[in-house]
């Protein structure tokens, strides 16, 4: 029997057409399709890939709470790795669907670390949310020798200000929850005119705000980011 | 007559299967397929997209020298924008193929800036070389609150050392020409064990060097990068 492979598959930012040909082919070919799900709603990764999932495939949703403490999350990954190991040992190929790219802030990494000593692994890169945000807002990310920094919206204020002072382009991910505070820091760094705030890039509910001083009240969604980019 | 659209299309890092479904569909649908070419060999972007180009489409290669001075390059972009404007004004949809992502160090940006006031523009994001490099080397780019910086291999030494000191992950693009010097700076920053050097990620000629102190002699290719990533 050939050894079964564990595939980490990026399904991109949201538009089902932003799947790669390779992702679409492999999703349709594997025996088991795994994906993160939440207790309160369907899996976003699954809904993006839906057209390629076959009725004879086994589906394995992994209930990953989005704001749990790490101990609980680690226990869920360990259980999921155990179950995936079981499928693979039976000779069944498994794909784990990841929003965006599996290797950039993707939950695939935690499963990879638990399984790569025992099983062949293959990773299919996906379109990142910031590439989609750049495409829909038409703000170029970088040209020539410009430098770019990618940070999480939850880093300390001083670190964010440093990034804004040092890099031509700063991408602030998972920014929605603190969007008003982050917008004020961008203004403080003198880069208001170069900034945009984007939610759900490439999805039907996509929103683009080119004036970050006039964001709607309250927190935004998890699927959100700021692009701050010097236009040379 | 409907207004014709100018499409900036990312064709990804090299593997023709890493095109998105959207890129494949649009390449097959437009009237004119444009791409950067060089005087000494075929266009890499075209060869990646080849399977989707139809025999009845007009092809428009744009001869972009890779190391010309900017004055010459700007003149070539101006001429290309003029020709693309002509196609669009005739009502013919034009796609410009870009390696990787059109908005990240992509030549599309220069055409976009010249044409977006006159014509509708649509941008299709592509898989970045560093996502492909991460996938094939199996080095995760970032998790949780790690920060990531993307720099060109030609920036001053001090700036590169700063990036290596300040960020969990540093991606050094277009690194081949100076790979031995860059490797020595990574060692100087104490991050040798966390680094890999990758050429042509996802292409048949792909090379992965996990030990950057033992790179082959001489310069490497333009399609190359270093990944330096702290594994938490």
- Shape descriptor of chain A reads elongated
Strand arrangement within the widest β-sheet of chain A reads 3-2-4-1-5
The tally of helices of chain A reads 7
The main sheet of chain A comes to: 5 strands, parallel
The chain pair forming the largest interface, with residue counts per chain, is:
A-B, 57 and 57 residues
Instruction: State the name of the first-level CATH class of the largest domain in chain A.
Output: Alpha Beta
Order of helices and strands of chain A: EHEHEHEHEHEHEHEEE
- Give the structural class of chain A: alpha/beta
Q: What would the CATH topology of the largest domain in chain A be?
A: Cobalt-precorrin-4 Transmethylase, domain 1
The oligomeric status of these chains comes to homodimer
Total beta-strand segments of chain A: 10
In words, what does this structure look like?
Two copies of one chain form a homodimer. The first copy, chain A, is an alpha/beta fold. Chain A has two domains: 6-124, Tetrapyrrole methylase, N-terminal domain (Cobalt-precorrin-4 Transmethylase, domain 1, 3-Layer(aba) Sandwich), CATH 3.40.1010.10; 129-229, 2-Layer Sandwich (Methyltransferase, Cobalt-precorrin-4 Transmethylase, Domain 2), CATH 3.30.950. In chain A, 31% of the residues lie in helices and 22% in strands. In chain A, the strands form two sheets. Chain A has a five-stranded parallel sheet with strand order 3-2-4-1-5, sandwiched between helices. A five-stranded mixed sheet of chain A has the order 6-7-10-8-9, sandwiched between helices. In chain A, helix 2 (44-49) links the parallel strand 2 (32-37) and strand 3 (58-63). In chain A, helix 6 (157-166) packs across helix 7 (179-188). The longest helix of chain A is centred in the middle third of the chain and has 20 residues, at 70-89. Chain A starts with 5 loop residues before the first strand and ends with a strand. The mean pLDDT of chain A is 93. Chains A and B meet through helix 1, helix 4, strand 5, helix 5 and strand 6 of A and helix 1, helix 4, strand 5, helix 5 and strand 6 of B. Strand 6 of chain A pairs antiparallel with strand 6 of chain B, so a sheet runs across the interface.
């Amino acid at each position: 029997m050939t050894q079964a492979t564990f595939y980490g598959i990026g399904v991109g930012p949201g538009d089902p057409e932003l799947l790669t040909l390779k992702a679409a082919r492999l999703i349709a070919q594997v025996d088991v399709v795994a994906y993160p799900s939440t207790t309160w709603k369907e899996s976003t990764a699954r809904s993006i890939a839906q057209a390629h999932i076959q009725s004879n495939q086994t589906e394995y949703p992994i209930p990953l709470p989005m704001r749990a403490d790490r101990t609980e999350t680690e226990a869920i990954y360990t259980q999921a790795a155990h179950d995936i190991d079981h499928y693979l040992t039976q000779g069944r190929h498994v794909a784990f669907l990841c929003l965006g790219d599996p290797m950039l802030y993707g939950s695939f990494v935690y499963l990879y670390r638990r399984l790569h000593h025992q099983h062949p692994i293959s990773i299919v890169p996906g379109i990142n949310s910031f590439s989609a945000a750049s495409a829909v807002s038409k703000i170029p990310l970088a040209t020539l020798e410009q430098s770019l920094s990618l940070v999480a919206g939850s880093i300390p204020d001083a670190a964010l200000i440093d990034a804004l002072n040092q890099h031509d382009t700063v991408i602030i991910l998972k920014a929605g929850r603190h969007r008003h505070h982050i917008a004020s820091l961008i203004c403080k760094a003198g880069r208001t005119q170069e900034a945009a705030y984007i939610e759900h890039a490439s999805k039907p509910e996509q929103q683009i705000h080119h004036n970050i001083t006039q964001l709607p009240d309250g927190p935004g969604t998890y699927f959100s980011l700021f692009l701050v980019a010097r236009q040379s």
